[in-house]
Each structure stands twice: as C-alpha cells, then as structure tokens.
Amino acid sequence: KAGVTQTPRYLIKTRGQQVTLSCSPISGHRSVSWYQQTPGQGLQFLFEYFSETQRNKGNFPGRFSGRQFSNSRSEMNVSTLELGDSALYLCASSLDQGEWSPLHFGNGTRLTVT
Amino acid sequence: EDKVVQSPLSLVVHEGDTVTLNCSYEVTNFRSLLWYKQEKKAPTFLFMLTSSGIEKKSGRLSSILDKKELFSILNITATQTGDSAVYLCAVAGSARQLTFGSGTQLTVLP
User: Fold this and answer.
1) pLDDT per 10-residue tile (average), chain B, 110 residues
2) Among partner residues B41, B50, B100, which is closest to A43 by beta-carbon distance?
3) CB–CB of B36/B44 below 8 Å?
4) In the prediction, which pLDDT does A96 show?
5) Strand, coil or helix: A98
6) Per-residue pLDDT, A97
7) Which 8-state DSSP code applies to residue B53?
8) What residues contact A97, with CB distance under 8 A and at least 6 apart?
C-alpha cells in the first residue's frame, strides 16, 4: 500500500508570495492532518480535515488555510509568505474509524522563503 | 495546554549499548501516547500506548506507559548504527491533534 505522498518535495518562494502544498493520504484513510516542523519550535499542529471538513485548527494565523477533497486528498495554502514560514511541512493521514488511530506521515515539503 | 517533555535532548552511544529515552506529559483527557522515529524526512510510527495497552515490544524496541506518573520510556537494546535518529514522543488528548516533544537525538557510533 502506498504511503502518504506530498508534492512538491522542495519549494523556494519570495516574501509576499503564496504557496500551495499537496497531500495524498494512504488509500482508505479519511483523516488528513498538517504539521509544521522547524528547528526552534519542533512539530506544531496546523489543522486536521475529515470528510472535507476542518475538525480542528492549531494556533497559526489566518494566512494558513487548507482544504480536503472528496477523494480525501488535501491541500494547504500559505498566503503573504514571511521569512518565518520557512519550514518542513508534514502531512499525515490516519484511518480514524472512531477510536484514535496513529498518524502516518509523508516525507514533507521543504519550503524556503527568501 | 498539552505539554510533552523529552529527555535527554541528545545521546551518543556505541553499538551494542542499551538506551532509555524518557517522555513526560501533561494532557487534558489522555487518549494515547505515540513514539516516532525521524531520520531524514517523515517521522515513522513505532508504538501507540493507550489505557488498554501500556506496554509494547517490537524486536529490540520496547516501550511502557505509566499513566499514574504521566511518563513513558522507550528502550532500545543492542543498538545499531541504523538506530541513529531523532525519537519523538507525542500525546493525543481531547483535541484531535498530536502534541509533540522536542525529540531525543540518538547517535550510535560503530
């Protein structure tokens, strides 16, 4: 079974631009979560989607948004990029059949903002 | 606010040694504690411990959960250079999200 797939693997953007990251979950997984990983803050939760609905959101500004499609694929968007948005963005999917199930992560998208 | 603290921050050992990584937590409405291994990119799932499963073992790796004292340990016996990685501990509470610790960087020397 294929794992979580994230595209692109690397991105370089300029301050003020916007960016869209894509995530395809493991087949059959309906929950998709996004995390930001930086050396200073570690892994921080961005948001979680299930059946095209955002169920939970972390403490990030409104410039960070996401969505989930009917096939469970998800995208996250960051508008008006700032230097501090440089990070590894990780997508994770889980089975979510009522009980808590472990998250399985993709390889991430490395975003560099210059 | 949920909180996870891991110790030590880093550890250097030689092949064959046994290591113990620590994770203490504070969480509202505990649901589970998870351990991940992160080498270059994706954190890889190792164990999930819940109220109904407080001890897990897989090969040379094992983990226990103490819900009373709010901590967990991850043991690795007979370490190999391939065990070198960052080990992350995370907890799931009432919110549908994981709160991660800062990780333990393990380096295993040949």
Assistant:
1) 94 98 93 93 92 84 92 97 97 87 97
2) B100
3) yes
4) 76
5) coil
6) 67
7) B
8) none
Amino acid letter for position B106: L
Q: Residue type for B11, please?
A: L
Structure tokens belonging to residue B60: 């040379």
Summarize pLDDT for A92-107 with one digit per residue, the tens.
Answer: 999 876 667 889 999 9
Q: Which of A35, A48, A105 sits opposite B96 (nearest CB)?
A: A48
Mean pLDDT, range A50-67, rounded to an integer = 94
The verdict on whether omega for the bond into residue A102 sits within 30 degrees of 0, i.e. cis, is no
Contact residues, chain A, for B50 at CB < 8 Å: 100
Helices (H), B1-110: none
> Measuring CA to CA, which residue among A101, A99, A88, A110 is closest to residue A26?
A101
A-chain residues within 8 Å CB-CB of B48?
102
Maximum alpha-carbon separation in chain B? 43
Q: Look up residue A10 and give its amino acid.
A: Y
Helix, coil or strand: residue A110: strand
Say if CB B101 and CB A42 are below 8 A apart. yes
Q: Do A103 and A96 touch, CB atoms closer than 8 A?
A: no
How do strand B104-109 and strand B10-14 relate by DSSP bridges?
parallel
Query: CB of A109 within 8 Å of any CB in chain B?
Result: no
Q: Which amino acid is at B96?
A: R
Helix (H, G, I), strand (E, B) or coil at A35: strand
The C-alpha angle with vertex A108 and arms to B97 and A38, in degrees rounded to 5, equals 70
User: What's residue B79's pLDDT?
Assistant: 98
